[in-house]
């Protein structure tokens, strides 16, 4: 099926800013990648909750997998179709009803060397009242390696459940990245979702949140930092399908050298989704004259008792702030870095205090050090 | 400073205020006020339905046009035929291009006196209040009925100062060199399918020329009326404002209510020379069976100011995004877009500003109100091109849904290609609202007045209102306080 679906071109809606002409899907050999953090061979005696290879789960927890696999992310574009046809490796996180995980789960997915394609699949299912934190990392075995990463993430958050999910993408800067990630929230569920877009050469990551049950709420945070000739593309959707739902999305990016970024965001309020409160903002900080950012916010509203707000801005480092810090005796590179760091660290503050926030803050610092050293 | 800032809050109160409740009445008396039609007695010519090269040649011949214009039309026709129908915005799939009269001549000539206008047509314009408005508020009036202008007059003192305000056909006849110099320089015939159609079959519209330094104090007005069924009206307007001149052009339009569809597709080009100020106000009130697909674009040179006040009340579907190209240093552009979508209507409106020179500033303020299943769409573009350093812009859109059946969409796009600027973090939407509010309040305005000024971009709202009877709804909507806008 994947072979039959044609790749989108710059004329297709949503793909205007991401050129796929250099992508030859047939040139990659499939590779399963390696994964750290899943418990191989967990037998069902241990009982849930579980983190296990998805292929294994399909046998052992077949009901859950059968019910949820592909239900949150239907085949909607050629990349999802390709993933569904080709995936061999993935993870299932399953947290049963009323269960709370004390420690964050960490999943590290390593994309093998040159010329390979990894079709990775994550399925996270939280049943009613469950509570979990999951940090997923995508990395390349070789930081110079060229490859194709094609992922699908499905997040199912049951009634009253709480999920905090971080997806950190640190693939090599010569990797194509495609991903469709979608969350579905039931009644009174809550989701905190953080995407870190640091690696990859080019591609597109879709992040969609469907507030399907009344009283559900989602906070989606995106941080990206590009250098060299990286091109980062994010497509976000906040779909309010039920009344009394809240969504709050903030994306921020720092772009150096000739890096470019596109963010396209849509807030959709379905008929009957009254008392919706939706917010989205996109801010970019450009560190060089050749860096470029596009922001394309959008609203489609079919209910009349709602509050939807969005804001977007593209800016450079504020010379007044810089001047102020320098007048206090701080050397310029340090002052600049402090300002850029402050811009990104505001995102970490959107998550509750705790290990996740600290790890986020560290990850942002680390990436900033990388792109500023290239500068 | 490239400080593009875009803020689109939408807030509808749980219970409508009295002022909002009253909006539900808008349009309910359309049939009586505007929806009537005249008999077609005494019509000079009505082209058969459909579009062909022959029709285009006939139009050109009827108008005894110069060769270059005929060639221009024929080339445009090719563009029209080659281009696909746009598949974005509203639904254009139901337009039957073959079921339209592309040219209808109701009267043999454009008169300079209402007494010479055919009786039925004169009565219609009387009923619309045009001659009365002319006496009271206007510097000049053009009245177009079907494809051509039936009445045109401009105040003598302005004529003496060199102001030209004639219908486009007359403009081409009497000022051919001037027309030819600027014609299609702002909107080329292959700009889009509908602009190509207009370029092929255009008829009527206004030609305005304001010499350097001349300030036209009272507005010039053109009123467009469709009378016949399955009509296509394709007026073409060209405004040239020379250095330091000032002019306000106002247009209104209405049509009878029919069960079949008509098409209105205009092209409006405006050239604001250095330091000139042009305001173009539209009160669009076509009946609900008219597709309104219009291309409007202005260029503003050094320190010029261009303002679009674009109010869309009528039509079945409107797709119109007045644009401003700020091409000279210090140029300023402003768009106030107001849309009202009732039952069966889709207003796909907005505006575009392209900053193409340093120190240019702009603002776009959009308000849309939807009721009874109507759909209001804001579609906009804000672009800062390379080299447009220290550009500043602001976009604010508000939408109000009066009931659960209606729909609002917002598609703002920003493209920034100029980063060679030093820019501060700007505050969040609501904060800016509060700061502005505080600033104005500290200057002695009460909160309501201050909010109104913010919504209207610091230009006295009252100056954007019009005294004409057909503009009462627009004035109400300009005054309408929308809570969302102040965060």
Topology:
The complex is a heterodimer of chains A (375) and B (487).
Chain A: E1 29-30, E2 34-36, E3 50-53, H1 54-60, H2 62-68, H3 78-86, E4 89-95, E5 105-111, E6 116-126, E7 131-140, E8 146-157, E9 162-170, E10 174-185, E11 190-197, E12 202-211, E13 217-226, E14 231-240, E15 246-255, E16 260-269, E17 276-286, E18 292-301, E19 306-316, H4 319-327, H5 332-348, H6 355-374
Parallel strand pairs in A: 1-6, 4-6, 5-7, 6-8, 7-9, 8-10, 9-11, 10-12, 11-13, 12-14, 13-15, 14-16, 15-17, 16-18, 17-19
Antiparallel strand pairs in A: 2-5, 3-4
Chain B: E1 3-7, E2 10-11, H1 18-23, H2 30-33, E3 45-46, H3 53-62, H4 67-82, E4 104-105, H5 119-127, H6 130-137, E5 140-145, E6 148-154, H7 156-160, E7 164-167, H8 168-174, H9 176-182, H10 193-201, E8 206-210, E9 220-225, E10 232-233, E11 236-241, E12 246-254, E13 262-264, E14 267-272, E15 277-284, E16 290-300, E17 305-312, E18 317-320, E19 323-326, E20 332-341, E21 346-355, E22 361-370, E23 375-384, E24 392-401, E25 407-416, H11 429-442, H12 447-455, H13 472-479
Parallel strand pairs in B: 1-24, 5-9, 8-11, 9-12, 10-13, 11-14, 12-15, 13-16, 14-16, 15-17, 16-18, 16-19, 17-20, 18-21, 19-21, 20-22, 21-23, 22-24, 23-25
Antiparallel strand pairs in B: 3-4, 5-6, 7-8
Helix pairs in contact in B: 3-4, 4-10, 8-9, 11-12
Describe this structure in words.
The complex is a heterodimer of chains A (375) and B (487). Chain A has helices at 54-60, 62-68, 78-86, 319-327, 332-348, 355-374; strands at 29-30, 34-36, 50-53, 89-95, 105-111, 116-126, 131-140, 146-157, 162-170, 174-185, 190-197, 202-211, 217-226, 231-240, 246-255, 260-269, 276-286, 292-301, 306-316. In chain A, strands 1, 3, 4, 6, 8, 10, 12, 14, 16 and 18 form a ten-stranded mixed sheet that branches. Chain A has a nine-stranded mixed sheet with strand order 2-5-7-9-11-13-15-17-19, with helices on one face. Chain A has one domain (25-317). Chain A contains six helices and 19 strands. In chain A, helix 1 (54-60) packs across helix 2 (62-68). The mean pLDDT of chain A is 89. Chain A has 375 residues and is α/β, with parallel strands linked by helices. In chain A, 18% of the residues lie in helices and 45% in strands. In chain B, helix 4 runs antiparallel to helix 10 (193-201), helix 8 (168-174) packs across helix 9 and helix 11 packs across helix 12. In chain B, strands 7, 8, 10, 11, 13, 14, 16, 18, 19, 21, 23 and 25 form a twelve-stranded mixed sheet that branches. In chain B, strand 5 (140-145) and strand 6 (148-154) form a beta hairpin. Mean pLDDT of chain B is 86; it is low at 420-437 and 453-462. Chain B has one domain (3-427). Chain B is built from 13 helices and 25 strands. By secondary structure, chain B is of the alpha/beta class. Classes of the chains: A alpha/beta (375), B alpha/beta (487). Strand 19 of chain A pairs antiparallel with strand 1 (3-7) of chain B.
